[in-house]
Amino acid sequence: MSRSRTIDVPSNQGVAPEFMVTPETLDAISPSGDRGGVIIGSDPQGEAQAASILRSLPTRMVTVGGLYLARQLALRAMATGAWVIIATGRPAAWKVLERAAGETPDGKPVPLVQIRRLAPFDLPRSSEDTPLLVIHDGGAVPQELFPPRHPWQTTMYVLPYLHPQVSSGTAANTADLVLLQRLPLNQAQLAQRIWSLRNHQVQPLTQLQDDQLIALGNMTWTMIRLVTNQKEKDILGPIRRGD
Question: What is the pLDDT of residues 176-222, one digit of tens each?
């Protein structure tokens, strides 16, 4: 990948700056990002595709598909210095992020990553120096327990599939960025209704490969191929569609 392009989320987006993290974390994660944001993958021409998922506005994003995608985005957010808090009913599935962040000298997990129960709790205040990614891994119809209220807070909703009730929920309808992996036809048609897709955009959603996704933003429809490096493979395993 020789050049990068930042995906167009709303036009008043901020640009994610660089953050300092410990050398151990950098070594573990090997960040894939630039000042335009977090690199998601490459387009059909091989150009890097990045999104400013950590920015000076409260931000919502949605991933639909396998857990691999959400965990890779979390790793790359960590590599920019973001705090990552995961509210989940399946904590074991996220332990890889704790291990990747490392331990303090007294053997406790580095607080860069926190795994919590799927219930409301107080969030730390986010800022430009300490951006916050809150991951809501609460099934196909998540309750909005952690709406982004402050600048430099992004809430990412991890949906295993599209459920009809999602169409009436604010998490999906008001998302600034949506990343869709392969969907069956009925779910692709549901995606069309939720995000006002055109007819010719439905079929490609059913034909994506395991390492492909569609990014939806402000007037944006971008096909992206996921890429990974060896250190990410060591943490997450190979790219895949499922969990």
Answer: 999 999 999 999 999 999 999 999 999 999 999 999 999 998 778 89
If you compute the radius of gyration of the chain from its CA atoms, what whole number of angstroms results?
A: 17
Phi then psi for residue 73, to 5 deg, are -60, -40
- β-strand partners of 137: 88
Please give the residue range of the domain that contains residue 228.
33-101+110-118+126-236
Q: How confident is the model at residue 7 (pLDDT cuts 50, 70, 90)?
A: low
Query: Is 214 a member of any domain?
Result: yes
- Per residue in 37-47, pLDDT (tens digit) is 788 999 888 88
CATH code of the domain containing 37: 3.40.50.300
Q: Report how far apart, in Å, the C-alpha atoms of 99 and of each of 60, 96, 134 are.
A: 26, 5, 18
